[in-house]
TrEMBL record:
Organism this protein belongs to: Candidatus Acidulodesulfobacterium acidiphilum
InterPro entries: Cyt_b561_bac/Ni-Hgenase, Di-haem_cyt_TM, Hydrogenase_cytochrome, Ni-dep_Hydgase_cyt-B
Subcellular location: Cell membrane
Name this protein carries in UniProt: Ni/Fe hydrogenase
Family the entry assigns: Belongs to the HupC/HyaC/HydC family.
Length: 261
Protein backbone atom coordinates (compact mmCIF):
# COMPACT_ATOMS: atom_id res chain seq x y z
CA UNK A 1 0.00 0.00 0.00
CA UNK A 2 0.86 3.59 -0.01
CA UNK A 3 3.15 5.91 -1.73
CA UNK A 4 5.89 4.55 -3.98
CA UNK A 5 8.86 6.75 -4.61
CA UNK A 6 11.30 5.98 -7.36
CA UNK A 7 14.92 6.07 -6.37
CA UNK A 8 16.89 4.81 -9.34
CA UNK A 9 20.18 5.84 -7.87
CA UNK A 10 19.79 3.64 -4.83
CA UNK A 11 21.35 0.24 -4.91
CA UNK A 12 18.56 -0.94 -2.65
CA UNK A 13 15.90 -0.34 -5.25
CA UNK A 14 12.61 1.47 -4.82
CA UNK A 15 11.50 3.10 -1.59
CA UNK A 16 8.02 2.33 -0.39
CA UNK A 17 6.04 3.91 2.42
CA UNK A 18 4.52 1.10 4.49
CA UNK A 19 2.22 0.99 7.49
CA UNK A 20 3.92 -0.71 10.44
CA UNK A 21 2.02 0.13 13.63
CA UNK A 22 -1.72 0.55 14.16
CA UNK A 23 -3.21 3.22 16.43
CA UNK A 24 -3.95 0.58 19.08
CA UNK A 25 -0.34 -0.62 19.08
CA UNK A 26 0.95 2.95 19.30
CA UNK A 27 -1.28 3.60 22.31
CA UNK A 28 0.01 0.37 23.86
CA UNK A 29 3.62 1.38 23.10
CA UNK A 30 3.43 4.82 24.73
CA UNK A 31 1.27 3.68 27.66
CA UNK A 32 3.79 0.90 28.31
CA UNK A 33 6.66 3.39 28.11
CA UNK A 34 4.99 5.87 30.50
CA UNK A 35 4.09 3.16 33.03
CA UNK A 36 7.61 1.70 32.97
CA UNK A 37 9.27 5.12 33.43
CA UNK A 38 6.84 5.82 36.30
CA UNK A 39 7.74 2.53 37.97
CA UNK A 40 11.48 3.04 37.48
CA UNK A 41 11.31 6.46 39.22
CA UNK A 42 8.98 5.36 42.03
CA UNK A 43 10.82 2.05 42.38
CA UNK A 44 14.11 3.90 42.82
CA UNK A 45 12.52 6.00 45.56
CA UNK A 46 11.03 3.00 47.35
CA UNK A 47 14.40 1.19 47.28
CA UNK A 48 16.50 4.29 47.96
CA UNK A 49 14.38 7.10 49.49
CA UNK A 50 16.64 9.89 48.33
CA UNK A 51 14.19 12.72 49.00
CA UNK A 52 12.89 13.36 52.49
CA UNK A 53 10.28 16.06 52.85
CA UNK A 54 8.84 17.17 56.16
CA UNK A 55 9.24 15.24 59.40
CA UNK A 56 7.34 12.37 60.88
CA UNK A 57 5.90 12.83 64.41
CA UNK A 58 8.50 12.32 67.10
CA UNK A 59 7.95 11.55 70.75
CA UNK A 60 10.97 13.72 71.67
CA UNK A 61 9.17 16.84 70.53
CA UNK A 62 5.98 15.94 72.30
CA UNK A 63 7.77 15.23 75.58
CA UNK A 64 9.47 18.63 75.70
CA UNK A 65 6.91 20.91 74.13
CA UNK A 66 3.74 18.91 73.91
CA UNK A 67 3.62 19.68 70.17
CA UNK A 68 4.34 17.15 67.46
CA UNK A 69 6.80 18.41 64.81
CA UNK A 70 5.26 16.63 61.88
CA UNK A 71 5.42 19.11 58.95
CA UNK A 72 2.68 18.93 56.36
CA UNK A 73 0.82 15.66 56.32
CA UNK A 74 1.29 15.07 52.59
CA UNK A 75 5.03 15.63 53.01
CA UNK A 76 5.33 13.09 55.78
CA UNK A 77 3.60 10.50 53.58
CA UNK A 78 5.67 10.84 50.38
CA UNK A 79 6.65 7.17 50.58
CA UNK A 80 2.97 6.27 50.64
CA UNK A 81 2.40 8.31 47.48
CA UNK A 82 5.37 6.67 45.78
CA UNK A 83 4.04 3.21 46.61
CA UNK A 84 0.59 4.24 45.36
CA UNK A 85 1.94 5.47 41.99
CA UNK A 86 4.17 2.38 41.75
CA UNK A 87 1.15 0.15 42.27
CA UNK A 88 -0.94 2.04 39.67
CA UNK A 89 1.92 1.78 37.17
CA UNK A 90 2.21 -1.95 37.88
CA UNK A 91 -1.51 -2.46 37.19
CA UNK A 92 -1.19 -0.61 33.85
CA UNK A 93 1.85 -2.74 32.92
CA UNK A 94 -0.02 -5.94 33.83
CA UNK A 95 -3.02 -5.01 31.67
CA UNK A 96 -0.85 -3.95 28.71
CA UNK A 97 1.23 -7.13 28.99
CA UNK A 98 -1.81 -9.36 28.59
CA UNK A 99 -3.15 -7.20 25.72
CA UNK A 100 0.26 -7.55 24.01
CA UNK A 101 0.17 -11.32 24.61
CA UNK A 102 -3.26 -11.51 22.97
CA UNK A 103 -2.18 -9.43 19.97
CA UNK A 104 1.02 -11.48 19.60
CA UNK A 105 -1.10 -14.47 18.63
CA UNK A 106 -4.45 -13.09 17.42
CA UNK A 107 -3.67 -9.74 15.76
CA UNK A 108 -5.17 -9.78 12.26
CA UNK A 109 -2.58 -7.32 10.97
CA UNK A 110 0.70 -8.55 12.45
CA UNK A 111 0.62 -11.59 14.75
CA UNK A 112 4.08 -11.38 16.29
CA UNK A 113 4.43 -15.12 16.84
CA UNK A 114 5.11 -15.50 13.10
CA UNK A 115 8.37 -13.63 13.64
CA UNK A 116 9.63 -14.77 17.01
CA UNK A 117 8.94 -18.50 16.84
CA UNK A 118 12.26 -19.94 15.57
CA UNK A 119 10.87 -21.98 12.69
CA UNK A 120 11.95 -22.04 9.08
CA UNK A 121 14.43 -19.38 8.08
CA UNK A 122 13.63 -16.94 10.91
CA UNK A 123 16.72 -17.80 12.96
CA UNK A 124 18.90 -17.43 9.89
CA UNK A 125 17.36 -14.00 9.18
CA UNK A 126 17.97 -12.95 12.79
CA UNK A 127 21.59 -14.08 12.54
CA UNK A 128 22.10 -12.10 9.29
CA UNK A 129 20.70 -8.99 10.95
CA UNK A 130 22.93 -9.42 14.02
CA UNK A 131 25.97 -9.91 11.76
CA UNK A 132 25.09 -6.73 9.85
CA UNK A 133 24.97 -4.72 13.10
CA UNK A 134 28.57 -5.68 13.84
CA UNK A 135 30.04 -5.63 10.31
CA UNK A 136 27.84 -3.05 8.51
CA UNK A 137 27.84 -5.41 5.52
CA UNK A 138 25.13 -7.45 3.76
CA UNK A 139 22.15 -5.60 5.19
CA UNK A 140 19.10 -7.88 4.99
CA UNK A 141 16.03 -6.61 3.20
CA UNK A 142 13.53 -5.11 5.63
CA UNK A 143 9.87 -5.85 5.27
CA UNK A 144 6.43 -4.71 6.22
CA UNK A 145 6.73 -6.64 9.49
CA UNK A 146 9.19 -6.61 12.34
CA UNK A 147 12.47 -8.35 11.53
CA UNK A 148 13.12 -11.66 13.39
CA UNK A 149 16.02 -10.29 15.49
CA UNK A 150 13.88 -7.43 16.78
CA UNK A 151 11.01 -9.83 17.43
CA UNK A 152 13.22 -12.18 19.45
CA UNK A 153 14.65 -9.26 21.51
CA UNK A 154 11.14 -7.95 22.19
CA UNK A 155 10.00 -11.41 23.24
CA UNK A 156 12.90 -11.67 25.73
CA UNK A 157 12.00 -8.19 26.98
CA UNK A 158 8.40 -9.20 27.62
CA UNK A 159 9.57 -12.35 29.43
CA UNK A 160 11.60 -10.02 31.68
CA UNK A 161 8.47 -7.95 32.25
CA UNK A 162 6.57 -11.14 33.18
CA UNK A 163 9.25 -12.09 35.73
CA UNK A 164 9.22 -8.52 37.05
CA UNK A 165 5.45 -8.75 37.51
CA UNK A 166 5.69 -12.06 39.39
CA UNK A 167 8.49 -10.90 41.73
CA UNK A 168 6.61 -7.62 42.31
CA UNK A 169 3.40 -9.47 43.17
CA UNK A 170 5.35 -11.72 45.56
CA UNK A 171 6.67 -8.67 47.46
CA UNK A 172 3.15 -7.21 47.46
CA UNK A 173 1.49 -10.35 48.79
CA UNK A 174 4.24 -11.39 51.21
CA UNK A 175 2.47 -9.77 54.17
CA UNK A 176 -1.01 -10.93 53.13
CA UNK A 177 -2.66 -13.34 55.53
CA UNK A 178 -6.26 -14.37 55.42
CA UNK A 179 -8.49 -12.33 53.13
CA UNK A 180 -8.49 -8.96 51.37
CA UNK A 181 -11.06 -6.31 50.45
CA UNK A 182 -12.00 -8.23 47.29
CA UNK A 183 -12.12 -11.64 48.98
CA UNK A 184 -9.85 -14.51 49.95
CA UNK A 185 -9.39 -15.60 46.32
CA UNK A 186 -7.11 -12.64 45.53
CA UNK A 187 -4.28 -13.35 48.03
CA UNK A 188 -4.69 -17.07 47.31
CA UNK A 189 -4.21 -16.45 43.58
CA UNK A 190 -1.14 -14.27 44.17
CA UNK A 191 0.42 -16.80 46.55
CA UNK A 192 -0.38 -19.64 44.15
CA UNK A 193 1.22 -17.88 41.17
CA UNK A 194 4.26 -16.32 42.88
CA UNK A 195 5.30 -18.35 45.94
CA UNK A 196 7.60 -20.44 43.73
CA UNK A 197 9.83 -17.36 43.41
CA UNK A 198 10.67 -17.65 47.12
CA UNK A 199 12.05 -21.13 46.51
CA UNK A 200 13.89 -20.27 43.29
CA UNK A 201 15.48 -17.02 44.56
CA UNK A 202 16.12 -18.09 48.18
CA UNK A 203 13.49 -16.11 50.06
CA UNK A 204 11.99 -12.62 50.04
CA UNK A 205 15.39 -10.90 50.07
CA UNK A 206 16.41 -12.79 46.96
CA UNK A 207 13.10 -11.93 45.27
CA UNK A 208 13.66 -8.25 46.07
CA UNK A 209 17.20 -8.31 44.65
CA UNK A 210 16.00 -10.02 41.46
CA UNK A 211 13.25 -7.39 41.13
CA UNK A 212 15.86 -4.63 41.37
CA UNK A 213 18.23 -6.42 38.96
CA UNK A 214 15.50 -6.81 36.34
CA UNK A 215 14.80 -3.09 36.65
CA UNK A 216 18.38 -2.41 35.52
CA UNK A 217 17.98 -4.84 32.61
CA UNK A 218 14.82 -2.97 31.57
CA UNK A 219 16.70 0.35 31.71
CA UNK A 220 19.43 -1.18 29.50
CA UNK A 221 16.78 -2.44 27.07
CA UNK A 222 15.19 1.04 26.81
CA UNK A 223 18.60 2.59 26.08
CA UNK A 224 19.32 -0.11 23.46
CA UNK A 225 15.88 0.25 21.87
CA UNK A 226 16.18 4.03 21.45
CA UNK A 227 19.78 3.75 20.22
CA UNK A 228 19.11 1.04 17.63
CA UNK A 229 16.05 2.83 16.21
CA UNK A 230 18.00 6.09 15.86
CA UNK A 231 20.95 4.15 14.36
CA UNK A 232 18.73 2.38 11.82
CA UNK A 233 17.08 5.67 10.87
CA UNK A 234 20.46 7.30 10.24
CA UNK A 235 22.23 4.37 8.57
CA UNK A 236 19.36 2.91 6.56
CA UNK A 237 17.40 6.12 5.97
CA UNK A 238 14.10 4.27 6.28
CA UNK A 239 12.58 6.34 9.10
CA UNK A 240 12.34 3.57 11.71
CA UNK A 241 12.24 6.14 14.52
CA UNK A 242 8.95 7.48 13.10
CA UNK A 243 7.04 4.20 13.55
CA UNK A 244 5.72 4.77 17.11
CA UNK A 245 4.70 8.33 16.20
CA UNK A 246 2.94 8.04 12.85
CA UNK A 247 2.79 4.28 12.34
CA UNK A 248 4.68 4.42 9.02
CA UNK A 249 8.21 3.81 7.80
CA UNK A 250 9.98 3.40 4.49
CA UNK A 251 11.30 0.12 3.13
CA UNK A 252 13.41 -0.81 0.14
CA UNK A 253 12.64 -3.76 -2.07
CA UNK A 254 16.20 -5.10 -2.37
CA UNK A 255 18.76 -6.34 0.07
CA UNK A 256 22.44 -5.45 -0.27
CA UNK A 257 23.25 -8.91 -1.64
CA UNK A 258 20.45 -8.61 -4.23
CA UNK A 259 21.76 -5.25 -5.34
CA UNK A 260 25.11 -6.85 -6.22
CA UNK A 261 23.51 -9.33 -8.64
Amino acid sequence: MGLIMQNKNSKYGEIQLVHRMTVIKRIIHWSFFAAIINNIITGFYIAYPFLIFGKTPTQADSLSTGVLNSGETYQAFIMTWMREFHFIGAVIIDVIFFVWLYLAFFSWKEPLYKSFIPFGDKLEEAWRMLKHYFTLKDRPKTGRYQDPLNAIIFTLFHLLILLQMLTGFQMYVASFTGTSAVGAWWPWLLHFSTDWTLVVFGGLTGVTLVHLFIMWLIIIFIAYHVYIEVWRSIMWKEGDILIPFGGYKYMRNKSESESDI
